Amino acid sequence: MTRGLLVVIAGPSGVGKGTVHARLRATLPDAVLSVSATTRAARPREVDGVHYRFLDRLGFEAMVTRGELLEWAEYAGNLYGTPRGPVAEAVADGKVVLLDIEVQGALQVREQDPDALLVFLAPPSFDELERRLRQRGTEDDVAVAARLEVARRELAQRDAFDQVVVNDDLERCVAEVRDAIAAARTG
Ligand SMILES: Nc1ncnc2c1ncn2[C@@H]1O[C@H](COP(=O)(O)OP(=O)(O)OP(=O)(O)O)[C@@H](O)[C@H]1O
Ligand SMILES: Nc1nc2c(ncn2[C@@H]2O[C@H](COP(=O)(O)O)[C@@H](O)[C@H]2O)c(=O)[nH]1
């Protein structure tokens, strides 16, 4: 059986993490995406248990207290975390487990699993990041401004990652991440 691997793809909101994850899963048959827990309200078309496990703050804090989260962080006023059990099971089963998380959480994963591959997805420019976030249309102007402020701090932490990949051309970016995963699995 091929070795399982935990792969974190972090980077600022709107850079394209979800888009890259979807492409990766389409081309890597043994890749699975971890479903995070969050206190954020569901967006239209988001399904509980598929896109996120949507919880109130008490429910989330209970998971933290029970040690059920591999990592967690507060982001733009909401809590987000990775359930530990499903990740451990899938890695033991030889799967590539993909985490779409922000930077504080990514750095916690490094402490929990030194073998994890940490990829930082960077935008071609800050203006292009803002354009993507606004054209997605899921946040109002206040929320976009808050996310861009966090993005400036996150971009300054890119050197803490194993690899920085610029998401300019999507297909090239996905190929670069796929190559990094293949190298980490054989290395
Ligand atoms: N290479 C690319 N070129 C142009 N647009 C892109 C590219 N990659 C992603 N996008 C677009 O940018 C927007 C943000 O992408 P996406 O939702 O995947 O970002 P994200 O990093 O997952 O955001 P969040 O962290 O908020 O969930 C989407 O509209 C997506 O279609
Ligand atoms: N530390 C964690 N960050 C997470 C997790 N799940 C998602 N995220 C990140 O939060 C922001 C905002 O996400 P959004 O869905 O509200 O746009 C983004 O950077 C996600 O990658 C998690 O489990 N832990």
Task: Report, as a whole number of angstroms, the end-to-end distance.
Answer: 15 Å
Q: Which CATH architecture? A: 3-Layer(aba) Sandwich
Give the tally of structural domains. 1
Output the structural class: alpha/beta
Query: Rough shape?
Result: globular
Instruction: Strand order, main sheet: write it out.
Output: 2-7-1-8-9
Mean pLDDT: 96
Number of helices: 7
Spans of at least 5 consecutive residues with low confidence: none
CATH class: Alpha Beta
Biggest sheet details? 5 strands, parallel
Following the backbone from N to C, one meets helices and strands in this order, namely EHEEEHEEHEHEHHEH
Bound molecules: adenosine-5'-triphosphate, ligand LQESDW3C
Strand content: 15-25%
Q: Give me the CATH superfamily.
A: P-loop containing nucleotide triphosphate hydrolases
How many E strands?
Answer: 9
Radius of gyration: 16 Å
Protein name: Guanylate kinase
Catalytic activity: GMP + ATP = GDP + ADP
Binding site for ATP: 11-18
Enzyme class: transferase
